[in-house]
Design brief:
The protein is α/β, with parallel strands linked by helices and 163 residues long. It contains 6 helices and 6 strands; from the N terminus they run βαββααβαβαβα. α5 links the parallel β5 and β6.
């Protein structure tokens, strides 16, 4: 059983990654220096760390962003580029369970209709769940799915606290 969880939103630029996090938190959010509280249900919260701008876009290594944060749950934007392999490796090598929403596959890929980078095989070869969602739709449904995943995972591990 994985003791850490990565909630990832994978996509090209302008796919809806940041909009997903902003909707989840109910306000505009960015990568911070510290863990933060995420309200999952009324009076029930969990501690998470957010990497809103993808490490790939920033030209940074996810491990450098996370440093020694000792996060159990990480929310992370993932840019659909070859460099995302490095980010996936970081999380899988540290025993994270992956829960990934891939937004708009093929939408900005200049005619490619599927996974030209082979990322799907990499994700599903690990302890993971992968869903494909439209970033063009209102994010409420995908955000609710993410919220439910975090809640179930955290509740089972005793990570929910009153807020």
């Amino acid at each position: 059983m994985a003791s850490r969880l990565l909630i990832g939103v994978l996509g090209n630029r302008k796919a809806g990654k940041s909009r997903t996090w902003n909707t989840l938190f109910g306000r505009r959010v960015r990568t911070g220096k510290y863990r933060r509280h995420l309200t999952l249900r009324p009076n029930e919260c969990v501690e998470v760390f957010l990497i809103s701008g993808s490490a790939e876009e920033r030209g940074k290594y996810a491990g450098d962003i996370l440093e020694d944060k000792k996060c159990r749950i990480v929310l992370c934007s993932l840019q659909y580029t070859e460099n995302v392999y490095e980010t996936f490796d970081y999380f899988t090598e540290r025993g994270f369970q992956l829960y990934i929403h891939w937004l708009n596959p093929g939408y900005y890929d200049h005619g490619a209709q599927w996974d030209r980078l082979g990322i799907v095989n990499r994700i599903i070869s690990t302890h993971s769940m992968l869903g494909i969602r439209s970033g063009q739709d209102h994010p409420a449904t995908r955000v609710q799915e993410i919220r439910e995943c975090i809640y179930g995972w955290a509740k089972y591990r005793g990570l929910i606290f009153k807020c």
